[in-house]
From TrEMBL:
One of its GO terms (molecular function) is hydrolase activity, acting on ester bonds. InterPro entries: GDSL (IPR001087), RhgT-like (IPR037459), SGNH_hydro_sf (IPR036514). Belongs to the 'GDSL' lipolytic enzyme family. Keywords: Hydrolase, Signal. It comes from Penicillium roqueforti (strain FM164). The keyword ATP-binding does not apply. It comes from the Eukaryota. Residues 1-16 form the signal peptide. This is Rhamnogalacturonan acetylesterase. It holds the Pfam family Lipase_GDSL.
Length: 250
């Protein structure tokens, strides 16, 4: 039943290539509520391709995998489609003494951890392993994959600009290199824009907490992603309706 529900939510385009978005609440439709929105809802204005936002709040690379959500995309993805993978906000923490079902095994390679989640024994992989495994499946079907670093928390939260990328930013780069697909440092490009926009403007983008943006903030975050795509000369740029986005190439 779970697989049927997931598959019904993924509708491939009959008109051409589709961009599938796989991520957490910072990308998802509706964000976490309370005036927030995920940046995946602001991709459509900048591309001629169909966009299928399959991001889900509260998910990590591990839980997205365990719930069959990568598999659901793989079941419908077609040659020439794009899949953008961006996780990190929910992947930290510890497996002990209580496993929240989201935490990945420590490491950057083939390390594994054993746990029991929700009464079921589970072998937990590293963050790069989950992302690489999904990427290999998509590539085998002829799809293009971009692995993107997580968006930053409000870097103006203390009143002084500070951007300190989490370890999952580096892990995303490791995964992209291992899988042989483009890496987009989304976090760095968002941080660069947030620094330019300043304290007052950026604080207003975070109406709920320091992680989830308002619709206006989400639009800025989406444009920062495409700025990184253009600057990185990623092939997706040929499907953009414009290559003019705020900011400089990093």
């Amino acid at each position: 039943m779970k697989s049927a529900i997931l598959l019904s939510a993924v509708i491939p385009s009959a008109l051409g290539a589709t961009i599938y978005l796989a991520g957490d609440s910072t990308m998802a439709k509706g964000g976490t509520g309370s005036g927030t929105a995920g940046w995946g809802e602001y991709v459509t204005p900048y591309t001629s391709l169909t966009v299928s936002n399959q991001a889900v709040a509260g998910r990590s690379a591990r839980s997205y995998t365990r719930e069959g959500r990568f598999d659901a995309i793989a079941a419908v993805v077609q040659s020439g489609d794009w899949v953008i993978i961006e996780f990190g906000h929910n992947d930290g923490g510890s497996l002990t003494p209580t496993d929240n079902g989201r935490t990945d095994c420590s490491g950057t390679g083939s390390e594994t951890c054993s746990t029991t989640y929700d009464g079921v024994a589970e072998t937990v992989l590293t963050f790069p392993a989950y992302v690489e495994n999904a990427t290999k499946v998509f590539k085998a079907k002829g799809a293009n994959v971009i692995i993107s670093s997580q968006t930053p928390n409000n870097p103006w939260e203390t009143g002084t600009f500070t951007y300190a990328p989490s370890r999952f930013v580096g892990y995303a780069q490791v995964a992209a290199a291992a899988a042989g697909v483009p890496y987009v440092d989304h976090g760095a490009y968002v941080a660069d824009q947030f620094q330019t926009l300043g304290l007052t403007a950026v604080d207003a983008y975070f109406p709920l907490d320091h992680t989830h943006t308002s619709p206006t903030g989400a639009s800025v975050v989406a444009q920062a992603f495409f700025k990184a795509v253009v600057c990185g000369d990623v092939a997706l740029k040929s499907s953009l309706t414009t290559t003019s986005f705020p900011g400089s190439c990093l």
